[in-house]
């Protein structure tokens, strides 16, 4: 069965520190997609990135970067020079293509607190 | 353009009552999804529509839950004989084209349901 584990329930750092959020997934599918979403206090899930299982290139978008490693089934997310506005709950999610279902499987989320 | 909208934003009901939650997807998105998010957890998949038909309802917890999308746009999630355990935030998402797991899902603000 597919599964997403975000072992860090809560992380608290001081503004301007770098922080990495871990995501480990399990799947028997060879074709799958991984996602990160941000859920600020307002509650709406905001899409951050989508990565398919055949593309292991790391990605950088401004202060955000993602490290995808199939060998360890991990898709970690790093925020560089964190800001208070980055405070939110971050979810990693998995979608399997060949399983026949289309819903995302989410981790439990990591609550990130950036202190000024 | 407008994002996914959901109404009502909050719903308080009594145990045993019937409720309807509405989702209006992004214009042109043929795929529509419902999720449920309990406090401190990640969203859990309920049902997926492709056009008017429910392509995957494997996440519906029991037969008290039902969803429709009669014209392939707006969807209604219906819960009969509500129980206190149904209290959660119900999220709707939509995506382009065939869905199929690889498309990015864009989420609405959710409906917070409280069953007393």
SSE class of chain A: mainly beta
Average pLDDT level of chain B: 93
Q: Give the CA-based shape of chain B.
A: globular
The shape of chain A, in one word, is globular
Which percent bin holds the helix content of chain A? Answer: under 10%
What string gives the helices and strands of chain B in order? EEEEEEEEEEE
Largest sheet of chain A: 6 strands, mixed
Our estimate of the beta-strand percent of chain A is: over 45%
Low-confidence sequence ranges of chain A: none
Order of helices and strands of chain A: EEEEEEEEEEEE
Query: Termini separation of chain A (Å)?
Result: 41 Å
**What count of helical segments of chain A does DSSP give?**
0
How would you characterize the overall build of this protein?
The complex is a heterodimer of chains A (116) and B (116). In chain A, 0% of the residues lie in helices and 53% in strands. Chain A is built from no helices and twelve strands. In chain A, the strands form three sheets. In chain A, strands 2, 5, 6, 10, 11 and 12 form a six-stranded mixed β-sheet that branches. Chain A has a four-stranded antiparallel β-sheet with strand order 3-9-8-7, with no helix packed on it. In chain A, strand 5 and strand 6 form a beta hairpin. Chain A starts with a strand and ends with a strand. The model of chain A has no long low-confidence stretch (mean pLDDT 93). With 116 residues, chain B is mainly β. Helices cover 0% and strands 47% of the residues of chain B. Chain B has no helices and eleven strands. In chain B, the strands form two sheets. In chain B, strands 2, 4, 5, 6, 9, 10 and 11 form a seven-stranded mixed β-sheet that branches. The chains are: A mainly beta (116), B mainly beta (116). At the A-B interface, strand 5, strand 6, strand 10 and strand 11 of A face strand 4, strand 5, strand 9 and strand 10 of B.
